[in-house]
């Protein structure tokens, strides 16, 4: 009569495979990204996004145009040492230009591929072109893209300008404009926007 109670080679293999699957599951659960955390963006700031991550100002990648509704604490603002003092500028692509005052800035994007944000009492055709930031926050503004003023200085990618409380940085992912005192701001690009 055969003796029972010991595991044969197939039994041992099955136990080893089970153990490896359990270890893999634990590793996945521990390293899985937290879906409730705010999304990361190219500059490392978290905030609210529309149309996905703000994509390259020139070509850009479209998104679904939804607003995640997530808001986070405003980040600490570091002013670059070589900051300029321009009250108006355009990005090298020519698609986005901004005007800065002591307390607020408005940027205009002439062409975009994201779904425009919904603004109360504003037609969809007049939404998504203009964005404004102040110490109180950043928001889209109702209105079609106005004519670009003549004589704007081209702010090269990597350069920044500071006027009063408003700092704007030119990046390949669109301008990032924010209040120095509160950190509230926005980033706009052909493929998407975000506010923080």
What does it look like?
This protein is an alpha+beta fold. The chain has one domain. The protein has one helix at 9-31; strands at residues 48-50, 88-90, 96-100, 104-109, 130-134, 137-141, 153-154, 160-163, 166-171, 174-179, 185-189, 192-195. The strands form 2 sheets. It has a 6-stranded antiparallel beta sheet, with no helix packed on it. The protein is elongated, with a radius of gyration of 24 Å. The relative contact order is 0.22. Mean pLDDT is 79; it is low at 35-48 and 52-72.
Secondary-structure blueprint of this entry?
Blueprint: H1 9-31, E1 48-50, E2 88-90, E3 96-100, E4 104-109, E5 130-134, E6 137-141, E7 153-154, E8 160-163, E9 166-171, E10 174-179, E11 185-189, E12 192-195
Parallel strand pairs: 2-7
Antiparallel strand pairs: 1-12, 2-3, 3-4, 4-5, 5-6, 8-9, 9-10, 10-11, 11-12
Order of strands, main sheet, comes to 1-12-11-10-9-8
Q: Give the CA-based shape.
A: elongated
Tally the beta strands.
12
Number of helical stretches of at least 4 residues: 1
Radius of gyration: 24 Å
**Helix share, percent:** 10-25%
* Overall number of structural domains: 1
Specify the biggest β-sheet.
6 strands, antiparallel
Let me know the average pLDDT.
79
In terms of DSSP E residues, the strand content is 25-35%
The helix/strand series, from N terminus to C terminus, equals HEEEEEEEEEEEE
Low-confidence stretches: 35-48, 52-72
Instruction: Indicate the structural class.
Output: alpha+beta
Give the distance, in angstroms, between the N- and C-terminal Cα atoms: 76 Å
Transmembrane segments: 12-32
Keywords: Membrane, Transmembrane, Transmembrane helix
Region (Disordered): 36-78
Biased composition (Low complexity): 44-58
